[in-house]
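Entry 14. Ran structure prediction on the chain below.
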Amino acid sequence: MYAKIILAALAATASASPLARGKENPATYPDSAVKRTPMPSGTTGNMPMSSGAVGADPPTVQPPPIDTALISQLELAPNAVERFNILTQKGKDSKPLKFDFNGKKDTGAGGHVTLADRTSFPALVDLGISAAVGFMQPCGMNTAHTHPRATEFLTVVDGAIQTGFIQENGFNMEIKTELTKFQGTVFPMGSIHFQFNPKCEPATFVAGLNHENPGTSTIAQNFFALDADILDTTLGFPKAIDGDNFKDFKDKIPANFAQNIATCLAACGKSM
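Output, structure tokens:
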């Protein structure tokens, strides 16, 4: 029963969402025409999303180029001193220890997250940490996702944000928090969690993660990239989603940084 409720909510949310899906590349799965959205290396996967009708293409946001040669050098360095010698060998003007979270300004309707990890900021190689800054637009939601290799500590620095997470089997109660400026919360490694800005003003958060490559897995997008028969068996109602309607349903799942909470949009005077 709960699976049907969850799917009904996903379908309703997707049909009401003003956001476009991200760029997708086809993948081949038996008995289905499933597509999965690739997440650029060095990002959380929470890229800017555009407003507009579902099915339209949002502006493409390219992640910064990855300096694989530098990362390899740092990995092979025998100790921390040598790593920092490599980082600073280009001189003081190279600013190897400065990361700019301002980045691109083409925020979509929901918002975006900028991540400093070992690929986007090689100075973090072997330091075991990373950090992210999230810029959330009014009614914007960073939809349910996990970090497979890191625990996250999130602090609101501007505005207000609602969060929630669910832990592993045996403790699957949703833990909710309402955070305002300079209040924080934690998302344990592997927990399913989300952030939502319920206000009519933008909100900003800063998050620290205890791994230099925390990874991000968005729940709905990745779950529905599985084979259709596996999904039917897992959800327990094979007659509800199969064949052609499976593709239609999957294609309507909103992008992972979404803006689709009807009551918030209405309160803020925004159209759906």
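The two ends are 28 Å apart (CA to CA). Will compare against last week's run tomorrow.
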